[in-house]
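re: ur question from earlier - yeah i can do the single chain one, its not a big deal. heres the input i used so u can compare w yours
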Amino acid sequence: MSNQATEKLQEFPGSEVAPENSFTNADKNDSDDKKFEIAELKRQLSEQTRYFDAILSSAKDFAYTFDREGRFVFVNQALLNLWGLKFEQAIGKNFFDLEYPADLARRLHNQIQQVFDTKQIVTDETPYISPTGIAGYYEYIFSPFCGADGAVELVVGTTRDITERQEMEEILRHSEEQYRTLFNSIDEGFCTIELLFDDEGQPYDYRFIEYNPVFKELTGLQNADGKTALELVPNLEKKWVEIYGKVALTGESIRFEDNSEPLNRWFDVYASRVGDETSRKVALVFTNVTERRQMEEALRDADRRKDEFLATLAHELRNPLAPIRSGLEVIRNIRNDKAKFEETLEILERQTNQIVHLVDDLLDISRITQGKIKLRLERFELKTAIEMALETSQGLIDESENELTISLPEKPIFINADLTRTTQIFLNILNNAAKYSDQGGKISLKANTENGNAVISIKDTGLGIEPDMLEKIFDMFGQIETPYEQARGGLGIGLSVVEKLVEMHGGSIEAFSEGNGKGSEFVVRLPLAAEQSAEIAAIPHSEDDILQKAQMKMPENQTQEKSPLLSQLRRILVVDDNSDAVEMMEILLSMEGYATRTAFDGETALEIAREFLPEVCLCDIGLPEMNGYELAGHLRKLLPEALLVSVSGWGQEEDRQRSIKSGFNYHLVKPVQFEDLLKLIKKQPDKAA
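and the output i got, formated as tokens:
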């Protein structure tokens, strides 16, 4: 470069040597002075050029100049090293000559021409792999170098290797992408806020800096960028500003659960300061725990109701047990007072029925919960189930001195349902109406049809139901009052049983009340039978009804003869390993005029049966050695025409089915109503249900 500079300098005007005889001595002296000045200038220029060359050659950045054709006029050593060339190999060459990729060479050449044409600086970046195999990413600047006339004489360029910076930027971009992906995809709501403090250093508000989609979804806050909390939620609770302000000032992270009143949701909140002690930014993580809190509350409520239920159960069981025990003492001590004896028996029967009802409710809800109840669907008139329910609940209604009114349409309403369970539905509602009505209250039962359903309304003027209890009244152990305030008792499971039985029939039940002391109404909807018929499919409820229906189905030539059903059965075998149960049953049957024999096990029962030839056998299932099912098989072979009735404490559907398969005609669950047993005894064996 210095040699070239010297050569260029020699081309400057006035640098030629004049002929010796062309000047005077004065001129000669002037010429000598000029030569000296020129020589000094050359020396200075050469020195400056050497310094300039040394500086540019030692620089790590690449320095170079181009002429108008885009050829290199100067190249520093750093760029020569990148190319692996010497100075003279590069000067006068362009990017195409130096085998740059065609697209890159064309772009660089066009940018050089752009600087010549516009005098504007061009800045750009590009990846490049040198002939020596060095790969990098480079940032370059092309600047115009103008002459005295203002025209661009050269284009000066510098290039810096920014590979490391580019890699760092790529890492940062990747990290930012990962952060943003995580930020936007986490299940929790996340946001960053900046606390705002007043002149006294107290926080009064905070501004939202960034937040993820879940945060917007949880809080319902939209377009919160740069806005303050009070702008978005004017009635924001002051505690939130105080909590986050403390985190920003102290740097102590905090985690807590709280209920946001404006949003009516429970949040698990984690707050942590972002940055050093001078920072006023706080990162917040929100997790919606409303559902969990509701579940916890529901569990606490269920546990409370369970405790209340157990207390009520103990109360309800002790109530009937007390008069039963007293009644036993009365019977033990009375002599010939028949009236007192009959009165005591009525009390014992009534209280025993109460215990049976409690146990039935408990068993029913357990079976329903486990899906073990199977409906026995049949077509019958709705009136039948209502009448059967009234037969049982009438005593409680009369005891409460309630006025009962019934309104049924003239045209029969037929449904396809389980008669026993349908009766149980109405019975439970009627009993509740009687229990929760004051003396002299009114109870009404109405039925009609609507949109393919039988609609039954049972309304009372009793205690009523508070609005917040209407949704809970059908819950397990749900009660209108606490057990300590109840006047008439109840386990709080009756309506739960009713609701599930109604739903099993494809129906629905609703409760209505205007509040405490204003009575209540329960509306049951059950699907109508597929075809309505004017024929009354009444279910017989008494012995006369049974005989009348049986005679209607007999052949015509037998209708004038005495029915076999009218011939009283005399010989009955009672088999039970409970001696008290056997003795009581033997006494009751003897009082009815039947001849009885008893046995406490299966083998003894078979021996007696071979000799006694009973027409009816009442058998317990849980017998020693040979159980009741096995005994039934032997008895059926021995006495093919006998009426076999299982009397057991096992009452689930599978127990009933097993009894029938074993040979029994009927399956009764202890304790048995003696009147019901008498009805079965008088029926034909081949009419087993």
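The chain has a mean pLDDT of 79. not sure if urs matches, ping me
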